[in-house]
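Board notes (copied after class):
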Amino acid sequence: MTIVCAIDFSEGSRQAATVAARLAARRERTLWLVHQVHPDQLIVAAEPVREGLQALLREEASRLSGLGARVQVALLENGSKRALADFCDEHEARLLVVGPPRGEVPYPGAGGSLDRIAQTTALPLLRVRDAAPFQDWLSGKRPLRVMLGVDRSRGTLAARLWLEELGLYGPIELLAGHVYYVYEQCQRLGLPVPATMDDASPLLQDMLLHEVATLAGASVGNSPTVHLRQGVGRAADHLVDLAQEREADVLVVGTHHHTALGNLASVAHHALRLAPMAVVAVPARDAASQGEAPLPQVRRLLVATDLSPLADEAIPLAFALAPAGSEVHLVTVVPEPTSPEQHRVLQRQLLERVPRGLEQREVSTHAEVLIGRDVALALTQAAERQDADLVCLGSRGHGGLKEALLGSVARQVLAQSRRPVLVLRPPAR
């Protein structure tokens, strides 16, 4: 396994090369120092230009070898956008390190070598501006202060898992940053929308703090400090400001490949260009197709029934999926608020449907009555509030779920839910 550093011989890329060399030395990995040149630049005086570039590479390699790294150099005479990515694949690189962009481009979605590298590489991409924080970290003076940009996406999962590898180099202090829009989150969670969009209720903030901590916390073995920021507009601007306020050394974000136009909405793309601190963009990989996806932890299930015999047949199947130590929220939906006595009756009816024999598995059960004329919306909002890892419902029902023949409620839940949904069809009798 190797580390690759792309260098253009600017001061910024020399800072990046210094970090790459120290990382390579810490894990005893080979560092490849690579400069790419387009063949058109060698049309005139090709041999002198080639020799000059190779001399610069050897000079830089000599400096980096003094930091304890095992350095090799490569001059890529190739105009392909994928030349560097292909080189990384060929040499089994684990990390690609680059310096800051050399000047701004007129249109932020296109142009510049940094943009092309970010769009083509399948590796974690570390963009460095200043080597000093990494030198302090790798010399043991202090932990590296890392902010992980968190949302509920495959990119965040990839970034969180990569932090485990970063932690092998030295101790890190993990911060979790999340940018949100109040109205959108209230809609998602089924909470009252405040009078002004700047007024986030304590309940909303508590829910987001718990959710972000869960999404970020299991990766490096310590509990992250969560920081929330309300923001309208480009999320990258708010996330970079949050990282700067919290004095993060590195901002880590997940990403997936975009077209140039798509980059206008990419947090990773703008963070790579805007952030004054180092940035790591970790691409989401098709890990499941390669057998590399981690097994998800099912800690909390939401199980829905309309209290009809057909819908109830799915309940034992759902509880059978609940692992030891998990909790199950057994819910039903009614269109209007009920009296306290009716509410207690419905809760009792739900609890009567809980299968026996759960005590040994320490599965806790909560019976909840949800209010809502839109049954699917009430279920998906409850799943968000409860941070459910899995939503289970039957394929048939009556009453509140009477159209759940995988043609209405179940189909709507499948379409609307941000959580995994399992539609359970009872065995044929």
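Comment from the instructor: Residues 122 and 307 are 49 Å apart (CA to CA). The first strand starts at residue 2 and ends at 6.
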